[in-house]
Amino acid sequence: MVWSAIKSSLEASLPKSEFNLWIKPLECQFVNDQNLDLIGPDRFFCAWVEDRYLQLIQDIAQKMGVKGGIRLQAGPQKPLQVAPPHPSGQLRLPGIEDVQSRYRSLHPAFTFDEFMVGESNMLAQSACHALAVGDRTYGNCLFMNSSTGLGKSHLTQAVVHKILDVAPGTKLQYLTAQQFSADMVQNLKNNTMDLFSRKYLNSCEILLVEDIHTLIGKNKTQEELNTILDYLIKSGQRVILTSALSPKKLKGLDEDFRSRMTSGLVTDIESPDFDTRARIIEHKVNVNNLKMSKKLIEHLADKLKGDIRKIESAILGIKAKSCVRKKAPDAALINEVLGSLVENSADINAETIRDLIGRQFKVTTEELRSRSRKRAITYPRQIGMYLTRKYTKESLADIGNMYNRDHSTVLYAIKVITRDMSQKSGTKQQVEMLCEKLKS
After folding, report:
1. Predicted model pTM
2. Which is nearest to 199 in space by CA: 102, 105, 131?
3. Quick one: pLDDT band at residue 376, thresholds 50, 70, 90?
4. CB-based contacts of 10: which residues, under 8 Å, 6+ apart?
5. What CA–CA distance (Å, rounded) separates 435 from 391?
6. HSE of 228, CA atoms in CB hemisphere, 13 A
7. N or C: which end of the chain has fewer CB within 10 A?
8. Side-chain half-sphere of 439: how many Cα atoms within 13 Å?
9. Cα–Cα distance list, 387 to 382, 394, 409, 429 (Å)
10. What Cα–Cα distance (Å) separates residue 72 from each residue in 110, 242, 415?
């Protein structure tokens, strides 16, 4: 078969891990001498393959007589495939009726092995791994929150992957809050809420619900999920919830529901610090078979802050330009890619803020980084930390490194300046004046 021959060629030319991750899951739906139609697990997966491998597949296919194009599309979403086939051809978790199931597609790369652990996400990763293997060290309920692109979905999917690996018979439910809400509405219309509730109360050993913040204003859904959480948590079942907002910022939620969700461990995921970003970039460089010096990796880590998806986009852009130009990435190529991804160097950054603080308060960088506890040093240092958090995407750990402090000291400084601005007009005026200088 043509597709089998193409896969064999790809297997010979790509690293084994790369082939298994991105080529092996593809299925051939149709092939003739004009077209080759392929199906991938989901849209994200297909977009990734299209960016990285479609041209290579096209070239091999043409050599094998396929004169037309390659068409790649996402196949229909299926339940997790861990039980014997249902007559319909779909697979389902044991003990759960397939008509009741709601599962998100699993990304093959979202595993614990592929997750880069750093100070910003260590607690979240440890708690997720413990719950995945049945360890109750961190309790049986976890609430994770972070801004987009920092790994919430990666960790929840890693939990599911791990459970399927070590305990595939586990009865689990993994879905978004939107899916839960839509499923509940449908069961209300069909007058089958008893079946809906029973799916979670009687057939669920671990529940994972993402994007809880989308339930703001949906009182009936909150009430139903609150009842389910109450039963599962009290009966010792495992629960993992994620949100783009911290619990205290979830305005419009029922207080009893908020209390129930946060009855266990609550942890946020910060933007990765420099060292973690460097390890993420080095890993992705190796996965993409790129040759890049440590100096260039550190340059990328210095520029690509915040959303990890920005790192993925940069690596894809670097690989694409490197392939087109048939040359290894150099500083010029990397800066060309960074130009469309990072803010202009003239924008406010941590160094600009520290320099301004030094000039304004007549202190040196060495003094700001010293262990001195003199008010003349600690006060400007705290304002510098506050302004850096306000105007940049630096993580608490990165801000701490700027001033030779740890992230807890940065957090304390931010709280102190925030409090003083609300209580002392002099502090407020001084900070506002510095803000104006930064903007100008």
Report:
1. 0.63
2. 102
3. very high
4. 19, 23, 53, 56, 57, 60
5. 9
6. 29
7. C
8. 7
9. 9, 11, 14, 14
10. 22, 31, 51
CA proximity to 113, closest of 137, 89, 129, 95: 129
Helices (H), 33-81: 43-52, 54-63
Q: How far is CA 69 from the centre of its chain?
A: 33
CB 405, CB 396: distance < 8 Å? no
C-beta of residue 83 within 8 angstroms of C-beta of residue 203: no
pLDDT digits (tens, 9 = 90+) for 65-91: 777 778 888 765 443 433 333 333 333
Distance CA 12, CA 3 (A): 14
CA neighbours closer than 13 Å in the CB half-sphere of residue 418: 10
Tokens of 8: 């064999």
Residue 328 contacts residue 322 (beta carbons within 8 Å): yes
In whole angstroms, what is the distance from residue 351 CA to residue 336 CA? 23
CA 196 to chain centre: 30
d(Cα 145, Cα 151) in Å, to the nearest integer?
Answer: 10
Question: Please, are residues 304 and 281 in contact by the beta-carbon 8 Å criterion?
Answer: yes
Token pair listed for 421 = 């601005």
What is the distance between the alpha carbons of residues 325 and 163, in angstroms, rounded to a whole number? 43
